[in-house]
Amino acid sequence: MISIEGLSKIFTADKQKLTAVDNLTLDIKDGEIFGVIGYSGAGKSTFVRLLNRLEEPTGGRVVIDKQEITSLNSRKLRLARQEIGMIFQHFNLLWSRTVKDNIAFPLEIAGIAKAEREQRVQELIDLVGLSGRENAYPSQLSGGQKQRVGIARALANRPKVLLCDEATSALDPETTNAILDLLVDINQKLGLTIILITHEMHVIRKICNQVAVMEKGKIVEQGDVLDVFLRPKQPVTRKFVQQVMGSSEEDDDLQLLMSTYKQGKIVRLHFIGETTNQALISQLAKKYAVDINILQGKITQTRAGAYGTLFVQMDGKAEEMNKAIQYITDETSVEVEVIRDAN
Ligand SMILES: Nc1ncnc2c1ncn2[C@@H]1O[C@H](COP(=O)(O)OP(=O)(O)OP(=O)(O)O)[C@@H](O)[C@H]1O
To answer: Can you tell me where the transmembrane regions are (predicted)?
Structure first.
């Protein structure tokens, strides 16, 4: 759906040149929710604004749905932008217009007749969950409601792509989750491709299929969200994974676990994309004559399933414990490692 080749942006300020986006090449598939994460100044906002030429590239090519955005003249670019919706951190609503008139605005610009416009606005209001607030002004809305207006307005002309520039950064955690759920809902209902930039790894974890990590204008790491959680290669990526998983002080912890729990086996269970065996521990205890004591762990949910580690103490007859471990190996995708066996 989106193909980016050698995209660059160099700003010149006070005779100094600053490369905000540095020769970036990337492909994004149709229907994907693609996350771009990076710290402040990494070049994320500039990157996303280059895609619809809110910022003019210094070099490179952007092709969206077979149309080369970077070579369009201004009239054709205006038309192409109708196919590329965008939402912003600070919503960018028109304060003198009601909810419904904000949503109608891009339809007016596209020259849609009044009756059709009104029908479309109502559909969008229902889609984003704003029924009953049609005639409110932005100043009368909560942050979450304002972003719902932003989303409805961005979807008005039925775009194929939605760009989200830190769309939840101004919202509290609960509202953030509600807006992220809405984005997933829209992605599924409309098959829309979403590119989302953020500095928060939990946003990536919750809704993205793919993630790219940006640092100093470059993409330093990219892949399936679960793979990046599992094998973060760059220091910056490890820091982002730690935002969700906590820092790993595992070596110290292991010594403490082993000296505290002296009986049976201590087993590390590594969940990677597990979706079907959430009740693993209770299943093991029912099937085999083993006692399982949960010692420590952290498991988080990504869109591709659960990810994380759980340490358990397993006790019972050696034969039963071995059968239980064999079961995990053969029947589930959980990786199992016996890190201490007292028997
Ligand atoms: N219009 C501009 N003129 C000059 N420099 C700019 C301009 N816009 C951005 N920059 C610089 O480009 C670099 C990347 O900025 P950008 O806003 O894209 O980063 P970001 O990753 O989105 O960070 P943030 O989340 O803080 O906005 C920064 O060093 C910034 O100061």
So the answer is: none
From the CA of 38, how far away is ligand 1's center (Å)?
12
Task: Determine if ligand 1 sits within 6 Å of the CB of residue 11.
Answer: yes
What's the CA-to-centroid distance between 41 and ligand 1, angstroms?
5
Query: What would be the CATH architecture of the domain defined by 2-244?
Result: 3-Layer(aba) Sandwich (3.40)
Note the pLDDT tens digit of each residue in 180-230.
Answer: 999 999 999 999 999 999 999 999 999 999 999 999 999 999 999 988 888
* Structural tokens at position 100: 């419904």
- Segment 100-116 mean pLDDT: 95
Q: What is the mean pLDDT of the chain?
A: 91
Q: Residue ranges per domain, the chain?
A: 2-244, 251-341
pLDDT, tens digit (0-9, with 9 covering 90-100), for 131-150: 999 999 999 999 999 999 99
Beta strands in the chain, from DSSP E residues, in sequence order: 2-13, 16-28, 33-37, 59-64, 67-68, 84-88, 161-165, 193-198, 210-215, 218-224, 265-274, 290-302, 305-316, 335-341
CA of 303 to the centre of ligand 1 (A): 30
Ligand 1 atom with the shortest distance to the CA of 217: 14
Query: Minimal CA–CA distance to 100: which of 153, 151, 51?
Result: 153
Cβ of 231 less than 6 Å from ligand 1? no
ipTM greater than cut 0.90: yes
CATH number of 251-341: 3.30.70.260
12 lines ligand 1 (CB under 6 A): no
Write down the pLDDT at residue 229: 85
pLDDT digits (tens, 9 = 90+) for 233-278: 999 999 998 888 776 666 667 778 788 888 889 999 988 877 655 6
- Which residue's CA is minimally distant from atom 30 of ligand 1? 41
Q: CB neighbours (10 Å) of residue 191?
A: 10
Q: For ligand 1, atom 5, which residue shows the shortest CA distance?
A: 11
> Are the CB atoms for 287 and 209 separated by under 8 Å?
no
The whole model's pTM is what? 0.83
Q: For residue 104, what are the CA distances in angstroms to 72, 124, 146, 160?
A: 26, 10, 15, 18
Which residues in 105-117 are b (16+ Cβ under 10 Å) and which e? Answer: bbbeeeebeeeeb
